[in-house]
Amino acid sequence: MRHEMLGKLSQQFTWISLAAITCVGLTLVFFEYRQNLMFHAVQAEQVDSVERIQADFIRQAQAVANRDLIAIQESANANVSRLIANSLWRDEIGPFIEKADKAIANSCPPQQPRKCALDRRMRLRGLNAFDQLDRKVRALIQHSEVLKVKVYDLRGITVYSSDAEQIGEDQSGNPGIRDALAGRATSELEYKDAFNTFEGVANKVDVIGSYLSLRVAADERIAAVVETYTDVTPFVRRIEETMAAYEKAARANQAEIEARGQANGSQLFWRGVMQAFIVAALLAALFALLVAVVRRAQRIADRQVRERDAVKRHLAHTEKMRSLGQMVAGVAHQLNTPLAFSRSNVQMVRASLSKLHPLPAPLIIASEMLDDVMIGIDQMNELVRKLRDFTRLDREPTDSVDLREPLASVVYIARAVISTKIRVIESYTELPQITCNVSTLNHAFLNIIMNAAQAIQGEGVITITATSDSDNIEICIRDTGPGIPDDVLPHIFEPHFTTKPLGQGTGLGLSIAADAVAEHGGSIRVETYPGGGSAFFIALPVRPGNAALRITA
Amino acid sequence: MNYTGVKPSVLCVDDEVGVVRSLRWLLQDEFHVETACMAREGLELLLRHQFQVVISDQRMPDMTGTEFLGQVRKRQPQAMRLLLTGYSDYQAVLDSINQSEAYRFINKPWDNAELLRIVAEAASISLSTRPPAMQPESFDARESTILVLDSDPASVPLVKGVLGAAFQVLWARTVSDATRLLSDRPVSVIVCESTVGGVSTLPLINMLKEQCPEIVVVVHTAERDARAVRRLLNEGQVFRFLTKPSAVTQLAAMLQLAIGKHRELLLDPRQQRKYRVEALPGLHADEGHPGNAWQPYAARMRQRYSQPE
Question: How confident is the model at residue B178 (pLDDT cuts 50, 70, 90)?
Fold first, then answer.
């Protein structure tokens, strides 16, 4: 594809569409990228929300479990305190509280709370009933999960505790005690690093402490508050284990979701890449197709322009030829008149001279001169006649002729212009009549003969033969020139192709001859021989057949 | 050539002085020659002299040869009209036949001996024939048969349509058919093509003019070749020439003229000499020539058409 053929149209189109397609491509890529981002955001959001949900769930589960544990344990603690109350109230707790009530003051002066509390403790521990109560309580709760029991009187003072240090404290401000005094039981789950229990110090235990109202059986009035601590470490561990398991599962879920998300993400990415490739390939194919179409259009346009130019040039040439022909015919016609009376006069003079017997000496030469003049005039006549025959301007364009006659005219005219060193030999057999545009064929024959003459440098022979069979007339024009080189041979009938230097020759002669032959449905071929010499073979069908005979006026 | 002491008069008109002088020198021994270089001058000379032969060039500045000869025909119908032609176009040649009823076309350059012969012949005819009689007022339809020689069948209804039912119209699509018809019955006018079935009708026309010169030939053809038309006149003395397609009025006018001319020739056989033709060379010498096939027909026709001299 030669670049000079590309033309402006093709180039413009190539650049514009390349830019457009690139824009489209980039836009698509951009959208794809955004979509990818969005997917990832959504994915992350989902993963986050699952994580949150799972964490929430676990938290809730844990809270519920703890709540349940507390509730259950509270109930258990309530049972324990009930049991303690049932068994110890009448004989131990009730009386003790009475005594305790009398033994210690209602409130402590604010300046020395500790001293006051200490004082209370001393007093309470000093009570007889204390030891007995203590022994009974210990006996009841030993080897059980209950870690501590405390009893508060209605003033909120710790009157009894399994942890001796706490006895006498004023816990009236404690909300749990206040609630219990009001009849509401409350419980709390706590973790204790070190906890004083009945049997020593317990380390790192989870305990549930419940404040319970102690009601006297008969009228259900609240007599005291019992605080009970139970070791729930195993339960808490269990809950924690369960939570751990949940968390593990949750983490596994999370991981799975994340993995799936990743997998989806990467699948989406590769899908996107593949789509991008496909789209890119399609766009490239589209581009290539369009470029091909435009190039083809450009080529067609170029070819049409070339053809139009060729037709214009051809027409111009034909027009020139025709007007030249008319001029030639006009000149020939003009020559007829002076030729006529010159001939007539010379004839008469010769007739007069012939009447002289003897012919005087000076007139002998004159007579011979007149003989030569007559020959000259006849030559001129012949040439004029042949020129008129060649142009055939007074004849119909299409005529049925024996081609020997036009060939003779053409050869006659050619002989007049060809160098005398070149011999022209004619050899015709009998030819059938053929209907044709005679002046067009004359022109063709003359062009080929002149071409042959120009090929011959110096001396040479041009042989023109005409033969026929039932279907075709074949005319052969052979010359003894140097022959046609191989690189020239395929182009020889192309218009404007010439091996002559610039300015000499139009290169149209042989192409016009080829056109003329084609108009008649004939064929023209050329053979060239390595030793030298070329031969043009023109075959013309005797019956035009389907070939449309175009009459060029 | 039998001159009664007075040389026949010839008028030569050509815008080229050399031609006119040469013609004068050629003809002045045997003829009384007047010359003019302009058609106008020629017309003035016509007013002053009677001429037997008028020779005119075709291309002249003020008037064409055919126009001039047309004028000559009107003013001095007894003068034989010769047209000098170089290369002429088709229309001019046609007009020469139709408008001026030229006797011959003479090509430039001419042969002196040939030209002398033609002029002498023309002068002789002119002298020996009276001016044509007045055209008869009415046509006797019974005596007028028209032969149409054309391979196109549409030509017959065309002619019939123009002439009307009173005239008998025969049709021949080949030359041999025409020959047979002509030998069977009398024909006044022939309307024919220049070529029928690939064969030229010129030999037939030529033979007819030789044998039966009272038959008037009108050529109605699509042929556009000037040379062929010149030959039709010189060798066939075609009376009128019409190109196809023709207007019906034109065809009607020509046919009426042709029929009138035929009547005239019948009435005055010596007029027939004006329509003598050049015999086609080699026509009778060549055994195989189609012309020779007509000998028996020609003989019969001669019998049929023979008129007392």
Answer: confident
Q: Is the pLDDT of residue B278 over 90?
A: no
Query: Are the Cβ atoms of A348 and B26 closer than 8 angstroms?
Result: yes
| Cβ neighbours of B223 in A, within 8 Å | 396
- Buried-exposed string A455-481: b where 16+ CB fall within 10 A, e elsewhere: bbeeebebbbbbebeeebbbbbbbbbb
Listed residue (B56, B52, B91, B85) closest to B70, CA to CA: B56
Confidence at residue A552, expressed as pLDDT on a 0 to 100 scale: 35
Does B283 have pLDDT greater than 50? Answer: no
The answer to whether B23 contacts A342, with C-beta atoms less than 8 Å apart, is no
Burial group, residue A38, by CB count within 10 angstroms (0-12, 13-18, 19+): exposed
């309530």: which residue's tokens?
A: A78
Would the pLDDT of B285 be above 60? Answer: no
What's the mean pLDDT in B103-117? 89
Q: Note whether B225 contacts A395, CB cutoff 8 Å.
A: yes
Q: What is the DSSP string of B26-47?
A: HHTTTSEEEEESSHHHHHHHHH
Q: Report the SS3 class of residue A464.
A: strand
Identity of the residue numbered A524: I
Closest CA to A424 of A450, A403, A385, A390: A450
- Would you say residue A329 has pLDDT above 80? no
* Percent share of chain A, pLDDT over 70: 94
User: Chain B contact for A424, CB < 8 A?
Assistant: no
Residue A203 CA, chain-centre distance (Å), reads 73
> Strands of A534-541's sheet, edge to edge?
A422-428, A460-468, A472-479, A534-541, A523-528
Among A56-65, A91-100, A347-356, where is mean pLDDT lowest? A91-100
Task: Give the per-residue pLDDT at B304.
Answer: 63
Give dist(CA A23, CA A28) in Å, integer: 8
pLDDT at residue A535 is higher than 90: yes
Residue B21, chain A, CB below 8 Å: the answer is: yes
- What is the Rg, in whole angstroms, of the alpha carbon atoms belonging to chain A? 68
Q: Determine the Cα–Cα distance for residues B300 and B294; give it in Å rounded to an integer.
A: 10
CA angle, B204 then B280 then B147, to 5°? 15
How far does B12 lie from chain A, in Å, by closest CA? 13
**Nearest CB to B87: which of A333, A338, A351?**
A333
Mean pLDDT across the stretch B232-239?
A: 85
CA quadruple A285, A286, A291, A294: dihedral, nearest 10: 140
Question: Exposed (0-12), middle (13-18) or buried (19+): which is A1, by Cβ within 10 Å?
Answer: exposed
pTM over 0.80: no
Predicted pLDDT of residue A295: 84
For A444-483, how does the pLDDT look when each residue is reduced to its tens digit (9 = 90+)? 999 899 989 988 888 899 999 999 988 899 999 999 988 8
A440/A398 Cα distance (integer angstroms): 10
User: Is B15 in CB contact (< 8 Å) with chain A?
Assistant: no
Distance CA B176, CA B284 (A): 17
Read off the pLDDT of each residue in A65-90 and give the average, rounded to a whole number.
Answer: 84
Yes or no: say if B1 and B119 are a contact pair by the CB < 8 Å rule: no
Closest CA to A187 of A72, A291, A314: A72
Q: In this structure, are residues A223 and A8 in contact, taking their beta carbons and an 8 Å threshold?
A: no
Task: Find, in chain A, the residue whose alpha carbon is nearest to that of B20.
Answer: A341
